[in-house]
Amino acid sequence: MTSLPSRDVPILIISSAASSERRVNLSWTISQLKIKLEPITGIPPSAQILTLRLPASQESTAIASSDEDVTQLAGWSLTKHAELHVTSSDPSSGFAIASSSSVPKYEMSAETYASLPDTVLAFKKTHQIGRFDPHATEIVETKVANLWREVAEEPVCPAYPSAFFQISVCLAVDLGMCDVGVSSLTVVFPLADGRLAGINVGARCILPPSTTRRGTVAYVGIVPEIPGVGPWIGVRLDEPAGKNDGSLSGKQYFDCEPYYGVFVRPERVEVGDWSELSMDEDDDMEEI
User: Fold this and answer.
1) Chain centroid to CA 267: how far?
2) For position 211, what pLDDT does the model report?
3) How many CB atoms lie under 10 A from the CB of residue 9?
4) Helix, strand, coil proportions of the chain in percent (round to 5)?
5) By the 8 A CB rule, do 199 and 217 touch?
6) pLDDT single digits (tens) 48-75
7) Per-residue pLDDT tens over the stretch 221-258
8) CA nearest 227: which of 169, 179, 168, 170?
9) Is the model more confident about 104 or about 115?
10) How far is CA 224 from each of CA 47, 137, 221, 227, rounded to the nearest angstrom?
11) More confident residue, 86 or 154
C-alpha cells in the first residue's frame, strides 16, 4: 500500500473518561491510532470502537477495517474539530470511577466541630484569620475593588462618553469558605481622556500565556456558583478547549457549544484585535 502524505489534523477525542483536543496524523494506521488512544481513554486497542462525527454533520461513521495494521486514517474525512468517539466493547475496560455514595461516612455536627480545641477553626479564631479578622469585610471589599479595576483598566477599548467608570456590587463576603456578611460596594474609577478601558462583552481576547487560546468575551460579572469573590469573565472560545457550554450548575450565563465556554479571572484575559487562528498558526497544540 502506497503511503499517503503526512498531515496533522486537530480533532476532539471523546470517551467516558475524558474529552480533549489532540492532533492525529493522517498517515497513521488505525492500529497506530488505537495504541495512542489507550493512555487517554484507558481502553485497550482490542476493545476500542471508533466512531467519527464531522462538525457539520450529525451522522456517524465507523473507523474500522479488516486489516487495521495497514489501513491509514487518510481514508476517512478527518477534518479540523471533528469528533472521534471512543467506546469499549468490553464493559470492564476503561478508566472506571467507583461511586462512594453508598459507603458509610462519619459525620460531625457544626456545633461539635466548633467546640473542639485543636482544629483549623479554633486556630483561625485564636489568630483572627479569615472571617474572624476584625477587618475581614474591608479586606474582601479591597480584593473585589482590585478585581473590578482589572476589568476596567484592561487596555484596548472603545471610547466612552463618561470620564468615570462606576460599578455597584452587592457583595457576599466569603473568607475561608465561611460567610461573614453582606455589604454594598460602589467602585468609581477615573479614566484617562474619557475613555473606557476594559474587558467588555463582545471584545476579542486571548487567554495568556498561550496566544492560540482565543475567543470572545461573552460575560462579565459575578458568578456565585464559583468559590471566591469578585468578577469573572466568561469567554466563548473559538475551539473546543473550554470546560462548559456557558452555564454553571444549571444557570446559563452565555450561549455556546459544549466545551467552548470557560470562566476565568480578569487577569487571565487580554483583549485586542485577535482574529481566529488559521491551520498554520496551530503549531503549539498538544499532540498524541
Assistant:
1) 15
2) 82
3) 18
4) 20, 30, 50
5) yes
6) 999 999 877 778 899 999 999 999 998 8
7) 889 999 888 889 999 999 998 999 999 999 999 999 99
8) 179
9) 115
10) 43, 17, 10, 7
11) 86
Per the CB < 8 A criterion, the answer to whether 157 and 197 are in contact is yes
DSSP character string of 229-288: SSEEEEEEESSS-SSBSSEETTEESS---TTSEEEE-GGG-EES--PPPPGGG-TTS-B-
- pTM > 0.70: no
Q: Is the pLDDT of residue 137 over 70?
A: yes
What pLDDT, on a 0 to 100 scale, did the predictor assign at position 210? 81
CB 153 within 8 A of CB 189: yes
Closest CA to 169 of 183, 189, 149: 183
Q: Are strands 270-271 and 261-264 parallel, antiparallel or unpaired?
A: unpaired
Q: What is the pLDDT of residue 147?
A: 80
Percent of the chain with pLDDT strictly greater than 70: 75
- Which pLDDT score is estimated for 95? 58
Give me 200's grid cell: 467588555
Distance CA 137, CA 144 (A): 11
Query: How far from chain centre, in Å, is Cα 167?
Result: 26
User: Residue 21: CB partners within 8 Å, gap ≥ 6?
Assistant: 10, 11, 12, 13, 81, 239, 240, 241, 285, 286
Q: Give the Cα separation of 154 and 280 in Å (integer).
A: 29
Which residues share a beta bridge with 10?
23
3-state secondary structure 108-167: CCHHHHHHCCCCHHHHHHHHCCHHHCCCHHHHHHHHHHHHHHHHHHCCCCCECCCCEEEE
